[in-house]
Amino acid sequence: MKVTCYMKYDLVLLHAPSVYDFRKNSLLAGPISDVVPSSPVFEMYPIGLTSIADYLERFGLRVKIINIANRMLMDKNFDVEKKLKNVKTKAFGIDLHWLPHAHGSIELAKIVKHLHPKTPIIFGGLSATYYHKELIQYPFINFVMRGDSTEKLMLMLMNKFESENTNYDDIPNLTWKKEQEYGYNPLTYVPKDLDELDIPGYRYTIKSVFKYKNFLDPLPYNGWLQYPNTALLTARGCSQNCLICGGSKDSYEQNCNRKSLALRSPAKLIEDILFIQRFSRAPIFILHDIRQGGTEYVTDFFNRLKKIKLKNELVFELFQYADEAFFEHIHASVPKYSIELTLETHDEALRRLNGKFNCTNKKVIHTLRSALKHGCKKIDLFFMAGIPGQTYGSVLKNIDFCETIHLACNKDPRLYYFVAPLAPFLDPASPAFEHPEKYGYKKLCHTLEDHRKAITQPSWKHMLSYETNEMTRDEIVGSTYEAAQRLNNFKLKYQLIDQAAHADIDSKIVKSMQYIQTIDSLLALPLEEQSSRLGKLKKEIEELNRHSICGKNELKWEVQKNYANVFSLAIVGLELLYEDYIVKVKKQLNPATRHNVNLHS
User: Fold this and answer.
1) Based on the domain organization, do 285 and 375 belong to the same domain?
2) pLDDT tens-digit readout, 494-552
3) DSSP 165
4) Which of the residues 51, 63, 551, 599 has the least number of beta carbons within 10 Å of its own beta carbon?
5) Are 97 and 130 in contact (CB under 8 A)?
6) Is residue 591 predicted with pLDDT exceeding 70?
């Protein structure tokens, strides 16, 4: 597929909302996004979009990210088709990383192909990798780029679009079609080192605002301007094998052919932290448990942290028990830090089965007390409803364990507690998805189309792609809301929230349960009447869809100053534009440079 006409961009990367027409339809998403930064629209795009854009622009390509989901969320009158109709590009890329985008991404691809019938559309992401054979059957999708590291492969594909050679057999990991011919190239490109990449590509993101003169298109999620969180990826792959996680060790091996971790070096992480400090003072999330890299890796990282003047708070994830020495090491290296732990359950046997925090409750409490003792500013603790082997009663007992923890930690107000359902879907490629009977699941969605239909159901109860041997969908929903009520009361009892916050959350939980029942009754009506009656509930449902079972500020970290000063931001922008100019000059002097892609460097 050769593109010969002048284009403003080489590649435009689009992020779709979970359900494309969310502004029209009434969907009670409930608590499925309460414990993530984005809304039920799931407008936060995967960080891989920025690393792809950053890598391609190093070779002189012009890459634009448009967060369609966020633009639609920020402006109810935002016209998607009008926006995309005027885009001139050689190719469009659409992410299908998280399966809740199964509807929105496909619908967006349809629109793009209608507006630009001759422009190739490329899909990518973990879910796209899993369902690549189904995706390529859609008439409006031309390519699926598989695997967890597609930056170099995307450059190879973009090079093809400029050449006379339309043979795609030599691009690893690529699923493609030409007329009635389909190709499924072997998934053989699995890099073991990530230092060549910026993940996320913050240099690209800041530069693109100045270069393409649009501040709104690349915003990561609604509210980012008020609360600009950043994150750093330490690795691709995982050392843990949690049963319900599509990013587990087994899942990565099956879906991405990844048999070992690909790490970013401590030196690279420090380089990124220093750059982030130049434009943001918000917390920096260190994604994945830093200890996956091993003892030497951790020591190297913390020793390097000691040598810089760290201005931002760091947030660490923990996958397993951590001893007091670990927190002593953090405290000696980082002026301000917090941690996040997904315990999932109070039940030690269930944690052992599922794989997350496989230790005794005594060790859980020791981990928390050690962190609090050594300067930890905030600890987020997450519990779940719907994990393997869990009963309705077991979900409720999680709240009793919250009280046990709280009393054991001297009622420390730095502890924050959350409960959320495993929703809406089981992760494809996770052990529970691949072997549901073995792990006590009844899988209700199998194909991509199954998930596309499920995510458009009018309540999150009917979106659920599974039941368990222990709980029906009704019981998963009921236990989630009852546990949330108990947790809300627990927080008021220990003055972790005030009376007003408690009343607000309690009201939302009660209304949510009522609307679940109301929607169930409406689904028994004829289809035309369903739509009309559901439409009348739209406004009320929208109010319940955000922070329905926890306070809207509980997941936030206090930040006195979100941004660095205007002068430093301007300097960063000018520096990046100058670097971009140098790349452009080099490309003009040696146009063939970008065609040399070394997959083994």
Assistant:
1) yes
2) 999 999 999 999 999 999 999 999 999 988 888 888 878 887 787 778 777 777 777 77
3) -
4) 599
5) no
6) no
